Structures are given as C-alpha cells and as structure tokens.
Amino acid sequence: QVQLVESGGGLVQAGGSLRLSCAASGSIAGFNVMRWYRQAPGKQREVVALITSGGGTNYADSVKGRFTISRDNAKNTVYLQMNSLKPEDTAVYYCWGAGLNWGQGTQVTVSP
Fold first, then answer.
1. What confidence tens digit (pLDDT) does each residue in 17-59 have?
2. Residues 23, 7: contact at Cβ < 8 Å?
C-alpha cells in the first residue's frame, strides 16, 4: 500500500507563500487523479486542487489564481504552490488519490 507524507506547512503572514509536498512511498504514475484537500477547524474537508496524469488541473474557486498544483511522477511527489496566502487558507492540508490511505497532513497557518 502506497503511503503519503505531506510536508512544507508552517506559519506565514498574509500575502506570503508556501510550497507543500506530498511524497508517496511508491509510484503515483498509475493514479490518474491526485488531489490536495484542506480541513479547517470545525469545517468539512474540501478539495483545493486536482491534477490528472496528463497534467490537467482544476482548482476551487477560492484558490484560483493563487495556488498551483503539479506532480513529478519520477519523484512520486505532488506539489502545491500557494501564493498570496490569506488567513482563511489556514487549515491542515492533505493529498490523496483514490484507494490510498490518508496521510497525516501538514498544518498551514496564515496570520493577518
């Protein structure tokens, strides 16, 4: 079973940037769609962005133009570049592909 480990979170001021990484213990090439999710305190987990094996992407309206998802199948890693961060982006961020176990996530905190 492929395991996912998210990293790159932290505390940043509004307007700042972070780059999240999701490293898989095995190949992700066979997973057509990989997604980044986030879950804020007291809220449901929501999809932030997705990327297909062909490189197609889609984003939640709340992050369009600010976040960029990418994947490197050779490194078995999915990335989320987050720019112009806002306090409402504060959440635990997870990556996931169908059939995989959820990782521990990485905390992103954006201060005003």
1. 999 999 999 888 888 899 999 999 999 999 999 999 999 999 9
2. yes
Distance, in Å, from the CA atom of 94 to the CA atom of 35, rounded to the nearest integer, reads: 8
Candidates 23, 112, 108; CA nearest to 67 is 108
- Classify strands 33-39 and 91-97 as parallel, antiparallel or unpaired: antiparallel
In DSSP terms, which residues pair with 107 in a beta bridge? Answer: 92
Helices (H), the chain: none
User: Which are the contacts of 66, defined by CB distance < 8 A and separation ≥ 6?
Assistant: 82, 83, 84, 85
Interval 67-88: pLDDT, tens: 999 999 999 999 999 999 999 9
Q: Is 25 exposed, middle or buried (0-12, 13-18, 19+ CB in 10 A)?
A: exposed
Is residue 17 within 8 Å of residue 85, measured between CB atoms? Answer: yes
Residue with tokens 């307007």: 15
